[in-house]
Amino acid sequence: MSMGFRVFSEPDARVAASVVAEFRAEELPVANVADAIWRFGVLCGGIQPVAAGSRYLAGTALTVRTRPTDNLMIHKAMELAHPGDVIVVEAGGAGHHALLGELMCQYAARREIAGFVVDGPVRDGMEITDLGLPVYARGRTPRGPYKDGPGEINVPISCGGVAVLPGDLILADVEGVIAIPRGDAESVLDQSLQVRDAEAGFREQIAVDGWDRAWIDTKLDEKGCEIVR
């Protein structure tokens, strides 16, 4: 797909702020959310937190499509972002040029941007870690970017192999990143709470050696597995 050179100042719709706030308050594990929606929407495992102890990230996607060597449109996106937005960047997954670093992250934190998800590398990892801003990226490199364009803001993108629309819900923790379509976010919240509560019940069962495992043989029998004794 050819890349345009255009900026849409706002998404045409946004996930409800109340839903984002509840995900943030509950800090629902991304693994629970992924289970709740049958493993859909999870970005590839190569996109990981820059800081090992990165705090929970929940926010509204502000999308950027750019060349893997250029961050001009990321700078523009930072000017457009609302407090609590997550800047999500499609950059081809290449690892040759860092698309953001310490100074951009300091500025983003000052503007109350929730964090970044970048399908490409970043730099200044130690400084980003000290800053505490959640940044998820495909590795690091000291080589900086150019600022020439082209690129697009607030258009549908593919990040980590997942389609992300402007205004979608982005969640991330130490396990990775998930994108939830903005129209599904409220129902996914309810389903994720159910998954979390079910897992709490399993933990209690394990603690008293009462976890029912009969389902395993039942499933194997349904699938026609031969068990040789």
Largest sheet: 9 strands, mixed
Q: What number of domains? A: 1
- Derived structural class: alpha/beta
* SSE topology string: EHHEEHEHEHEEEEEEHH
Outline type: elongated
According to CATH, the fold-level topology is Glucose Oxidase, domain 1
- Name the average pLDDT: 97
Description:
The protein has 229 residues and is α/β, with parallel strands linked by helices. It has a single domain, classed as Ribonuclease E inhibitor RraA/RraA-like (Glucose Oxidase, domain 1). 32% of the residues lie in helices and 21% in strands. The strands form two sheets. Strands 1, 2, 3, 4, 5, 6, 7, 10 and 11 form a nine-stranded mixed β-sheet that branches. The chain has a two-stranded antiparallel sheet with strand order 8-9. Helix 2 crosses helix 6 (185-207) and helix 4 packs parallel to helix 5. The longest helix has 23 residues, at 185-207. The model has no long low-confidence stretch (mean pLDDT 97).
